[in-house]
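A further point concerns the way the authors explain their paired sequence and structure data. Since the whole study asks how a given chain folds, the encoding of that fold should be made plain. A single example would do more here than another paragraph of explanation. An entry of this sort, consisting of the sequence and the corresponding backbone structure tokens, reads as follows:

_____
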Amino acid sequence: MEVVIVPDAAAGGELIAEAMAALLRRKPDALLGVATGSTPVPIYEALAAKVASGAVDASRARVCQLDEYVGLPSGHPESYRSVVLRQVVEPLGLSTGSFMGPDGTADDLLAACEAYDRSLAEAGGVDIQLLGIGTDGHIGFNEPCSSLASRTRIKTLTEQTRVDNARFFDGDIEQVPHHVITQGIGTILEARHLVLLATGEGKAEAVAQTVEGPVAAVVPASALQLHRHATVVVDEAAASKLKLAPYFRATYAAKPAWQGL
């Protein structure tokens, strides 16, 4: 996979936002797969700034979610639908009709998972899927030992993930749902371009295992090694345990500017 080491989170956000802008210039109705959490915020801010300045037209873009909590009403401020509307759809000036996501409040959650997988395929597939990574190597909510062929499904969150996400619920872990709907690893791998952003020393071990370790279900993000077009963007802290960091720096420095991510 392609590994790009950037100085900081802002630089990573700008780099990925430009890749998304370039995609929209080529394909104005591209389907953008978005992730939640604090890590991708610099991407969305940089892309919104490009739209506001007229550097790119996102009016025909479509957006789809990576995952959703089970049981939170769609209007809850920390439902991922609300977060994506607030951080992506509204700043880019998109309509809610351009937005796709799994229904975490459905009476039949299994049917809702299958329906979401189907809807992604019927939409022509995801053009670029943004990903974060957990300290344990999870992507989406595919926790360690998730099947590498898994489809959109219901998952039970580990205690560590609930602890990590409690900061979005006023620090109260009791408010964090126990279950989520998440795109499976097999579903994620169907996107045309996967872009993972990781920042901070706390992600360094997971990044090293993802990029340089074996493909293994215990590190779900390592499945990106199987993808034909996967890009990992990391800041210096998150790259600190990469043995091949000098090689990655030299390779990206020599890459022709027109090639992009």
Observations:
- Residues 2-256 form a domain with the Rossmann fold fold (CATH 3.40.50.1360).
- The first strand starts at residue 2 and ends at 6.
